[in-house]
Design a protein that fits this description.
Elements (H helix, E strand, L loop, with lengths): L5 E10 L3 E11 L4 E5 L6 H8 L8 E10 L2 E2 L5 H6 L2 E4 L11 H7 L8 H14 L1 H5 L10 H13 L5 E5 L7 H18 L2 E6 L2 H7 L2 E6 L2 E7 H6 L1 H6 L5
The protein binds adenosine-5'-triphosphate.
């Protein structure tokens, strides 16, 4: 297990050339682990994920300092597409599926960075249907008619079609009932254990995220204010008070 599989050192991000939103974020994601990034709305979780996946430009954001390494290679100057080809992909907040495409067609769009044969694509689909049986049942349904939970599963499945070694999930629980979030996190753990996919999960729902993750970071105002094993964070009085709602 390499502790510096994904490594952020003193990452700073500005929007519109002036507003400093990340003020020096350093974090490590070990290979084969699940790490969660916790923080309130606006703390900088989405910005951190977009900095990693090189998706800031569309938001008029940019790295203004620091470095990001993935598998020992500096990646903060790689384009998002090249990053996907090199094994790292982000599932954006808000489970963006193409509403007019079926679930299966949505999944297939996730393979566009691979030059895969139809038989390989079918094998990829079958693997995703194995982990997400609900998607198999709904494979012919337009994604726009699927439930929120199914759309989130579809968004994760679509990312998996690129054959990633690492997946960034932005707020997978958003707008979903706790029961379906638990189901999704159980599948994430399964993918982590059996397919060795490394995950970084930005979450406001600290309770569910810490049950799923091995390690966590807490971000406030663009800075990491705490980190530790999931258990350490669950036991911490600050985390309990501010993020778990337990006094
Ligand atoms: P959320 O739960 O809303 O996703 P977050 O922790 O992910 O919250 P970010 O979305 O990273 O937080 O936002 C961090 C800060 O950057 C916030 O103050 C936000 O207003 C600001 N911000 C985000 N996107 C932009 C942008 N495109 N231009 C200017 N400021 C932005």
């Amino acid at each position: 297990t390499r502790v510096d599989y994904l490594k952020l050192d003193n990452v700073q991000v500005v929007y519109n050339g002036m507003i400093l939103v990340l003020r020096g974020v350093s974090m490590r994601v070990p290979c084969g682990k699940i790490v969660t990034l916790l923080g309130a709305n606006g703390a900088g979780k989405t910005t951190t994920l977009k900095a990693i996946s090189n998706l800031l430009a569309a938001e008029r954001g940019a790295l203004s300092g620091g470095s990001i390494h993935f598998e020992g290679r500096r990646v903060d100057d790689l384009g998002p597409e090249a990053l996907v080809r090199s094994g790292l992909i982000q599932v954006m907040e808000g489970r963006r599926c193409f509403p007019h495409l079926t679930i299966e067609e949505n999944l297939l769009t996730g393979a566009h960075t691979r030059s895969a044969r139809r038989s390989e694509l079918n094998a990829g689909l079958e693997k995703i249907f194995h982990y997400f049986p609900r998607l198999k049942v709904k494979r012919r349904l337009s994604a726009g008619y699927a439930s929120g939970g199914e759309q989130q599963m579809c968004a994760i499945g679509r990312a998996l079609m690129s054959n990633p070694r690492m997946v960034l999930l932005d707020e997978p629980s958003m707008g979903l009932a706790p029961q379906i979030v638990q189901e999704i996190f159980a599948i994430v753990r399964d993918l982590n254990q059996r397919e060795r996919v490394t995950f970084l999960i930005a979450e406001q729902n600290a309770t569910l995220a810490l049950d799923c993750a091995d390690f966590g970071y807490v971000i406030e105002n663009g800075r990491v204010v705490m980190d530790g094993t999931a258990q350490t964070l669950k036991d911490s009085s600050e985390v309990r008070e501010f993020y778990l709602g337990i006094g």
